Amino acid sequence: MVNHYWMETKLIQYERAKNTSTWNQKKEEQLKYLLELYHTGKFYQMSTTRIVQSLKKLARTHIGQ
Q: In the chain, how many domains are there?
């Protein structure tokens, strides 16, 4: 199960990152899709490993600059 504190941290980082000039439209769309799944509850039907891998890939690319 995904840690809710960790997920909230990613949501905050997303809000910060989307305001930067380096934000990539494709990555933003991928993250919006994951956030939509998270908010609708469908998120938990996905593999936890797949979710974490997707978010880590986004984080490496754009978050924590």
A: 1
34: closest CA among 54, 59, 61, 6?
Answer: 54
Considering the entire predicted model, what is its pTM?
A: 0.34
Closest CA to 54 of 62, 65, 8, 64: 62
Residue 41, phi-psi category: left (phi > 0), alpha (psi -120 to 50), beta (remainder): left
- How would DSSP label each residue in 20-52? STT--HHHHHHHHHHHHHHHHSGGGGS-HHHHH
Domain extent for 47: 4-62
pLDDT band, very low/low/confident/very high, at 65 (cuts 50, 70, 90): very low
